[in-house]
Amino acid sequence: MNYKQDLRLLSYMQLFIAGFMIIPTVMAYVNNEQKAFIGFLYSFGVIAVFCIFVALFTHKEKDANLGTRDGYFFVTFTWILGAAVSAIPLFVSGSYPDYVSAYFEVMSGFTTTGATVLTQIEDNPMSILFWRSATNWLGGMGIVVLLVALIPRVGSGGNKLVGAESVGPVKDKLTPKIQNTALILWSIYVGFSLLEVILLKFGGLNIYEAVTVTFSTMAAAGFCVKNSSIGTFNSSYVEIVVTVFMLIGGANFALYYKAFTGRLKNVLKDGELHAYLLIWGTCTLVIAFFLTNKGVYGDFSTALRYSAFQNASIITTTGFATANYCLWPTFTQMVLLILFFVGGCAGSAGGGIKVIRVATVIKAAVVHIKQRIYPSGIFPVKVGSDVIKDDVLISISGFIAIYIATGLIGSAIAALSGCDMMTAFSASFLCLGNIGIGFGSVGPTGNFAAFSPFLKWMFAFLMLLGRLELYTVFALFTKSFWKK
């Protein structure tokens, strides 16, 4: 490992964060939010000291190629240090009772989880809420991917960095150069974001509301500047726009590039996209029919409106809410709970296990049954037209096993701390899956404010694990990683 090179890149990343922090800093100054303004200045100071130290420590070091271990180390500590620095304004402003709560909130933002400790969101400074939502947007496509897109000197090592941060069992490389791929992905991400802002403005939201909602929608995150989330706007138009863009954010961004470059047929044949839309559409119709039949809503169109939004919010791991689904019939809650273990598509802004993994495991189970019946038969595991190779299948099976085991361990620790079973289970898996809202005390009307500092640290760690897909972080805890 080249620690000096890793530190140098970490300093670049802190400068990136400082650059984006200028906007809320100006907002704090203009709105006379003195404590928030001071908090942002503290962050700039910490970043400056860190960058000067790194510059003095590494000034004689020449650029070197990055290895896989460098990628894992750099990506993991980018998110840890980025959250540590970005949490300072939240704490200094007085919006959060202690630093751990502020750190939890920012880690929730960067990992696009959307879980919060705030009870009265609208009482906080606009600059703090804007920065809180901005961390969603930065984490959605990946802050390391942005670094690779904008800094040429990363070179071929960018493959290692993007591979350590990007989600999904298979990485899409759209162009021969990883820097161009990263730039394309971020360009698509920015383009969709601008489009959503414009559409939300037409829906009556002011620019502050439109931008912050877009930050969380495109990132499949869930922070909102309103106490009642998207339900505050009470607008079917806004809900439709947000639903559509949640689904866009939960799909593989590589497909958009293929569509924009004239390969629409390849997009339409994508097996994961088919499964993704089929799961969302089926669950939406089933819940809508059930809500109508049970008289929760007076007509099917209203039930469909709320069902479509909430199913999109859960499967894409966005975490917005327009209704308290914990008051819905138990069957509908169970459907939403199942979606906890699906998530968005590989290469999307969404979290969770990922549709491709779930679809692959189901197809593999079906193939295994066929092989039991026809021992001499050869049955490839296919998702759409794509044949899943054995090494990918093994990797997927291992990932799901570790994912579930990690979530259950987190649930057990939360239960030992006094949480009821549903809250413990839901809180653990919503943090690991970067979902944001769950059941029990962390449902659409709840939050994480009542949890102990220890549990907040643990949940923040689970968010990091989920966002970096377990292996990147867990690798740092193995002896082989640190051997020369």
SSE order = HHHHHHHHHHHHHHHHHEEHHHHH
What structural category do the secondary elements indicate?
Answer: mainly alpha
Low-pLDDT segments, ≥5 res: none
Q: Which radius of gyration do the C-alpha atoms yield?
A: 22 Å
Largest sheet: 2 strands, antiparallel
Strand order of the largest sheet: 1-2
Helix content: 55-70%
**Shape, principal axes of CA atoms:** globular
Strand content: under 5%
Mean of all residue-level pLDDT scores: 88
| Number of E strands | 2
Distance between the termini: 8 Å
- Count of runs of 4 or more consecutive helical residues: 22
Describe this entry's structure for a reader:
It is a single chain. The protein has 484 residues and is mostly helical. The chain is built from 22 helices and 2 strands. The protein has a two-stranded antiparallel sheet. A hairpin with a 2-residue loop joins strand 1 and strand 2 (386-387). The N and C termini lie close together (8 Å).
List key phrases describing it.
single chain; 484 residues; mainly alpha; two-stranded antiparallel ribbon; 22 helices; 65% helix; globular
Short description:
The protein has 484 residues and is an all-alpha fold. Helices cover 65% and strands 1% of the residues.
